[in-house]
Amino acid sequence: MNRIIARIAFVFSLLAMVSCENDMNAIMNLDKSTTAVEEGKDIESMYSQTGRVKAKLTAPMMLRHLKPPVYVEFSKGLKVLFYNDSLDVESTLTARYGKYFENDANIFLRDHVVVINKKGERLDCEELNWDSKLQKFLSNKPVRISTVTDTLYGTGLESNQDFSDYTILHPSGPFIIQDSTMMN
After folding, report:
1. Are strands 122-131 and 151-160 parallel, antiparallel or unpaired?
2. How many C-beta neighbours within 10 Å does residue 80 have?
3. Are 152 and 173 in contact (CB under 8 A)?
């Protein structure tokens, strides 16, 4: 009886060794695909240019995709504080999604993008690009800018980084135009 059990065990072990063949290429490809993304949580990152702090980014989660083109994804939102040379906050930016392209240092933002400058002027849009080299915001989508006295609408925007100087490329809606002949 012990011999029969031993032979059955031997046959099963032979079958197990034959059926568990590992393909090294499959293992290496699996390893590459699992390491192609780095993940970070509770991110805080400082952006500096010419030795001066320009911005601080915070995000609950970051995914860095290592396959070319390399990019960093903020799928759970982000917040950026932009600073002047005295480290005073000039403007803030929030978005529910962001994607930073490492090769060209551009950031694509979408889903409830809000920029507020130190004067309290607020930009609301669904998509916005930030060119960090030019330090400009650009959009070709509908935008709304709320100021202390008015709300402006349009499609397309160009703005400097601190959102103190902006242009709506195709304004729409009602406009109040002051009559220059009434001024003395």
Report:
1. unpaired
2. 23
3. yes
State pTM to two decimals: 0.73
d(CA 115, CA 77): 14
Q: What is the pLDDT of residues 4-54, one digit of tens each?
A: 554 554 444 444 444 445 555 555 555 555 568 899 999 999 988 788 888
CB 140 within 8 A of CB 126: no
Beta bridge partners of 67: none
Q: Which two tokens stand for residue 160?
A: 């400097």
Instruction: Please tell me the total number of residues recorded for the chain in this structure.
Output: 184
Tokens of 158: 């160009």
The CA–CA distances, whole Å, from 2 to 5, 13, 95, 131 equal 5, 16, 70, 77
Q: pLDDT tens digits, residue range 92-142?
A: 999 999 999 888 878 999 999 999 999 999 999 999 998 877 889 999 999
Q: Nearest CA to 82 among 136, 126, 129?
A: 136
Tokens in use for 9? Answer: 């065990």
Q: Report the C-alpha gap between 27 and 71 in whole angstroms.
A: 25
CA 48-114-59 angle, 5° bins: 55
